[in-house]
Amino acid sequence: MAELTIDAVVFDVLGTLVDEPAGLREGIGALTQSPALDAPGTERLLLLWQRHIEREQRRVVDGDRPYLPSDALDREAAEVVARAAGAEDPGAVAAPDAVETLARAARRLPPWPDTVAGLARLAGHFPLIGLSNASRTALLELNAHAGLRWHQALSAEDARTYKPDPAVYRLAVTVAGLPPERLLMVAAHAWDLRGAQALGLRTAYVARPVGDPPTASDRFDLYAEDLADLAGQLGVS
To answer: What's the pTM?
Structure first.
Protein backbone atom coordinates (compact mmCIF):
# COMPACT_ATOMS: atom_id res chain seq x y z
CA MET A 1 0.00 0.00 0.00
CA ALA A 2 2.95 2.39 0.44
CA GLU A 3 3.06 3.11 -3.29
CA LEU A 4 -0.69 3.91 -3.50
CA THR A 5 -1.25 7.49 -2.34
CA ILE A 6 -4.86 8.53 -2.85
CA ASP A 7 -6.44 11.95 -2.22
CA ALA A 8 -9.98 11.27 -3.50
CA VAL A 9 -12.12 8.25 -4.39
CA VAL A 10 -14.32 8.10 -7.48
CA PHE A 11 -17.18 5.59 -7.57
CA ASP A 12 -19.14 4.11 -10.40
CA VAL A 13 -22.79 3.87 -9.35
CA LEU A 14 -24.84 1.47 -11.49
CA GLY A 15 -23.97 -2.10 -10.55
CA THR A 16 -21.19 -1.02 -8.19
CA LEU A 17 -23.25 0.70 -5.50
CA VAL A 18 -26.80 -0.20 -6.50
CA ASP A 19 -28.31 -3.48 -7.67
CA GLU A 20 -29.54 -2.42 -11.09
CA PRO A 21 -31.02 -5.79 -12.17
CA ALA A 22 -33.10 -6.05 -8.98
CA GLY A 23 -34.77 -2.71 -9.60
CA LEU A 24 -35.40 -3.46 -13.26
CA ARG A 25 -36.90 -6.87 -12.46
CA GLU A 26 -39.41 -5.16 -10.21
CA GLY A 27 -40.26 -2.72 -12.97
CA ILE A 28 -40.65 -5.51 -15.52
CA GLY A 29 -43.02 -7.33 -13.18
CA ALA A 30 -45.17 -4.23 -12.83
CA LEU A 31 -45.13 -3.72 -16.60
CA THR A 32 -46.45 -7.15 -17.53
CA GLN A 33 -48.77 -7.74 -14.55
CA SER A 34 -48.99 -11.31 -15.75
CA PRO A 35 -48.47 -14.47 -13.68
CA ALA A 36 -47.64 -16.31 -16.91
CA LEU A 37 -44.30 -14.51 -17.15
CA ASP A 38 -42.01 -16.79 -15.18
CA ALA A 39 -38.53 -16.05 -13.84
CA PRO A 40 -36.75 -17.11 -17.06
CA GLY A 41 -39.10 -14.84 -19.01
CA THR A 42 -38.26 -11.93 -16.75
CA GLU A 43 -34.54 -12.59 -17.15
CA ARG A 44 -34.89 -12.62 -20.94
CA LEU A 45 -36.60 -9.23 -20.82
CA LEU A 46 -33.95 -7.90 -18.45
CA LEU A 47 -31.25 -9.04 -20.87
CA LEU A 48 -33.02 -7.19 -23.70
CA TRP A 49 -32.95 -4.03 -21.62
CA GLN A 50 -29.28 -4.39 -20.77
CA ARG A 51 -28.23 -5.15 -24.33
CA HIS A 52 -30.14 -2.15 -25.68
CA ILE A 53 -28.53 0.24 -23.20
CA GLU A 54 -25.03 -1.17 -23.74
CA ARG A 55 -25.36 -1.10 -27.52
CA GLU A 56 -26.76 2.43 -27.73
CA GLN A 57 -24.27 3.90 -25.27
CA ARG A 58 -21.48 2.32 -27.29
CA ARG A 59 -22.92 3.86 -30.47
CA VAL A 60 -22.81 7.28 -28.81
CA VAL A 61 -19.21 6.75 -27.70
CA ASP A 62 -18.26 5.59 -31.20
CA GLY A 63 -19.97 8.60 -32.79
CA ASP A 64 -22.59 6.48 -34.57
CA ARG A 65 -25.51 8.39 -33.03
CA PRO A 66 -25.89 11.80 -31.39
CA TYR A 67 -25.70 11.99 -27.61
CA LEU A 68 -28.93 11.32 -25.74
CA PRO A 69 -29.12 11.34 -21.93
CA SER A 70 -29.73 8.08 -20.12
CA ASP A 71 -33.38 9.00 -19.56
CA ALA A 72 -34.03 8.80 -23.30
CA LEU A 73 -32.17 5.50 -23.67
CA ASP A 74 -34.12 4.08 -20.71
CA ARG A 75 -37.40 4.96 -22.43
CA GLU A 76 -36.17 3.25 -25.60
CA ALA A 77 -35.25 0.15 -23.61
CA ALA A 78 -38.62 0.17 -21.85
CA GLU A 79 -40.40 0.21 -25.20
CA VAL A 80 -38.27 -2.70 -26.43
CA VAL A 81 -39.11 -4.68 -23.30
CA ALA A 82 -42.82 -3.86 -23.53
CA ARG A 83 -42.99 -5.10 -27.14
CA ALA A 84 -41.07 -8.25 -26.27
CA ALA A 85 -43.28 -8.93 -23.24
CA GLY A 86 -46.32 -8.93 -25.48
CA ALA A 87 -44.67 -11.34 -27.93
CA GLU A 88 -43.52 -13.69 -25.17
CA ASP A 89 -46.84 -13.66 -23.34
CA PRO A 90 -49.72 -12.53 -25.58
CA GLY A 91 -51.90 -12.26 -22.48
CA ALA A 92 -49.68 -9.62 -20.94
CA VAL A 93 -51.20 -6.16 -21.06
CA ALA A 94 -49.17 -3.13 -20.13
CA ALA A 95 -51.09 -0.81 -17.82
CA PRO A 96 -51.47 2.86 -18.81
CA ASP A 97 -48.17 4.71 -18.57
CA ALA A 98 -46.48 1.37 -17.77
CA VAL A 99 -43.66 1.97 -20.23
CA GLU A 100 -42.81 5.28 -18.61
CA THR A 101 -43.06 3.65 -15.20
CA LEU A 102 -40.61 0.96 -16.30
CA ALA A 103 -38.21 3.60 -17.62
CA ARG A 104 -38.33 5.34 -14.24
CA ALA A 105 -37.62 2.05 -12.49
CA ALA A 106 -34.04 2.54 -13.66
CA ARG A 107 -33.83 5.41 -11.15
CA ARG A 108 -35.15 3.45 -8.18
CA LEU A 109 -32.49 0.86 -7.56
CA PRO A 110 -31.69 -0.68 -4.18
CA PRO A 111 -28.21 -0.27 -2.72
CA TRP A 112 -26.07 -3.32 -2.06
CA PRO A 113 -26.12 -4.25 1.66
CA ASP A 114 -22.65 -2.78 2.28
CA THR A 115 -23.03 0.38 0.20
CA VAL A 116 -24.43 2.97 2.59
CA ALA A 117 -22.20 2.04 5.53
CA GLY A 118 -19.18 1.68 3.25
CA LEU A 119 -19.61 5.14 1.73
CA ALA A 120 -20.10 6.69 5.16
CA ARG A 121 -16.93 5.03 6.40
CA LEU A 122 -14.85 6.20 3.45
CA ALA A 123 -16.37 9.69 3.43
CA GLY A 124 -14.76 10.41 6.77
CA HIS A 125 -11.32 10.03 5.21
CA PHE A 126 -11.58 10.93 1.51
CA PRO A 127 -13.58 13.24 -0.72
CA LEU A 128 -16.04 10.95 -2.51
CA ILE A 129 -17.07 11.58 -6.13
CA GLY A 130 -19.85 9.67 -7.85
CA LEU A 131 -19.27 9.29 -11.59
CA SER A 132 -22.17 7.75 -13.48
CA ASN A 133 -23.50 7.24 -16.97
CA ALA A 134 -26.90 8.16 -15.52
CA SER A 135 -28.23 11.58 -16.46
CA ARG A 136 -28.21 14.43 -13.94
CA THR A 137 -31.89 13.92 -13.17
CA ALA A 138 -31.58 10.14 -12.94
CA LEU A 139 -28.50 10.43 -10.74
CA LEU A 140 -30.33 12.75 -8.35
CA GLU A 141 -33.16 10.24 -7.96
CA LEU A 142 -30.77 7.29 -7.70
CA ASN A 143 -28.83 8.98 -4.92
CA ALA A 144 -31.96 9.90 -3.00
CA HIS A 145 -33.62 6.49 -3.36
CA ALA A 146 -30.54 4.48 -2.39
CA GLY A 147 -29.33 6.89 0.29
CA LEU A 148 -25.92 7.42 -1.34
CA ARG A 149 -23.55 9.88 0.33
CA TRP A 150 -21.34 12.02 -1.87
CA HIS A 151 -19.24 15.12 -1.69
CA GLN A 152 -19.84 15.51 -5.43
CA ALA A 153 -21.94 13.54 -7.92
CA LEU A 154 -21.03 13.84 -11.61
CA SER A 155 -23.05 12.73 -14.61
CA ALA A 156 -21.69 11.70 -17.98
CA GLU A 157 -24.31 14.08 -19.33
CA ASP A 158 -21.85 16.90 -18.58
CA ALA A 159 -19.43 15.35 -21.08
CA ARG A 160 -22.23 14.50 -23.55
CA THR A 161 -20.90 11.00 -23.96
CA TYR A 162 -20.66 7.80 -21.91
CA LYS A 163 -18.00 5.84 -20.11
CA PRO A 164 -15.52 4.54 -21.15
CA ASP A 165 -14.96 7.74 -23.15
CA PRO A 166 -12.00 9.54 -21.50
CA ALA A 167 -14.03 12.75 -21.37
CA VAL A 168 -16.22 11.29 -18.63
CA TYR A 169 -13.32 10.37 -16.33
CA ARG A 170 -11.81 13.77 -17.02
CA LEU A 171 -14.85 15.32 -15.30
CA ALA A 172 -13.73 13.78 -12.01
CA VAL A 173 -10.12 14.84 -12.52
CA THR A 174 -11.18 18.42 -13.22
CA VAL A 175 -13.52 18.65 -10.23
CA ALA A 176 -10.98 17.12 -7.86
CA GLY A 177 -8.24 19.45 -9.08
CA LEU A 178 -5.73 16.64 -8.65
CA PRO A 179 -3.40 14.69 -10.88
CA PRO A 180 -5.21 11.58 -12.20
CA GLU A 181 -2.88 9.26 -10.30
CA ARG A 182 -4.11 10.72 -6.99
CA LEU A 183 -7.68 9.58 -7.72
CA LEU A 184 -8.89 6.03 -7.15
CA MET A 185 -11.65 4.81 -9.48
CA VAL A 186 -13.82 2.11 -7.89
CA ALA A 187 -16.09 -0.07 -10.00
CA ALA A 188 -17.52 -3.55 -10.35
CA HIS A 189 -16.92 -3.38 -14.11
CA ALA A 190 -13.50 -4.14 -15.51
CA TRP A 191 -14.29 -2.21 -18.69
CA ASP A 192 -14.98 0.90 -16.57
CA LEU A 193 -11.69 0.54 -14.72
CA ARG A 194 -9.78 0.10 -17.97
CA GLY A 195 -11.25 3.38 -19.18
CA ALA A 196 -10.16 5.18 -16.01
CA GLN A 197 -6.76 3.50 -16.11
CA ALA A 198 -6.17 4.79 -19.64
CA LEU A 199 -6.48 8.35 -18.32
CA GLY A 200 -4.05 7.66 -15.48
CA LEU A 201 -6.40 7.06 -12.56
CA ARG A 202 -5.62 4.37 -10.02
CA THR A 203 -8.17 1.56 -9.96
CA ALA A 204 -9.99 -0.70 -7.53
CA TYR A 205 -12.21 -3.59 -8.55
CA VAL A 206 -15.07 -4.44 -6.17
CA ALA A 207 -16.75 -7.78 -6.77
CA ARG A 208 -20.52 -7.71 -7.34
CA PRO A 209 -22.81 -10.47 -8.63
CA VAL A 210 -23.77 -8.32 -11.64
CA GLY A 211 -20.37 -6.86 -12.48
CA ASP A 212 -17.87 -7.40 -15.27
CA PRO A 213 -15.02 -9.42 -13.71
CA PRO A 214 -11.40 -8.69 -14.56
CA THR A 215 -9.61 -10.83 -17.11
CA ALA A 216 -6.26 -12.48 -16.57
CA SER A 217 -4.56 -9.58 -18.35
CA ASP A 218 -6.07 -6.84 -16.15
CA ARG A 219 -3.79 -5.20 -13.61
CA PHE A 220 -5.78 -3.07 -11.20
CA ASP A 221 -4.30 -1.54 -8.06
CA LEU A 222 -6.77 -3.08 -5.62
CA TYR A 223 -9.19 -6.00 -5.64
CA ALA A 224 -11.87 -5.97 -2.93
CA GLU A 225 -14.68 -8.29 -1.90
CA ASP A 226 -16.89 -5.35 -0.86
CA LEU A 227 -16.66 -1.77 0.39
CA ALA A 228 -15.64 -2.85 3.89
CA ASP A 229 -12.73 -4.77 2.39
CA LEU A 230 -11.85 -1.77 0.23
CA ALA A 231 -11.87 0.56 3.23
CA GLY A 232 -9.60 -1.80 5.11
CA GLN A 233 -7.14 -1.93 2.24
CA LEU A 234 -7.11 1.87 2.16
CA GLY A 235 -6.30 1.97 5.86
CA VAL A 236 -9.70 3.32 6.88
CA SER A 237 -10.78 2.03 10.29
So the answer is: 0.91
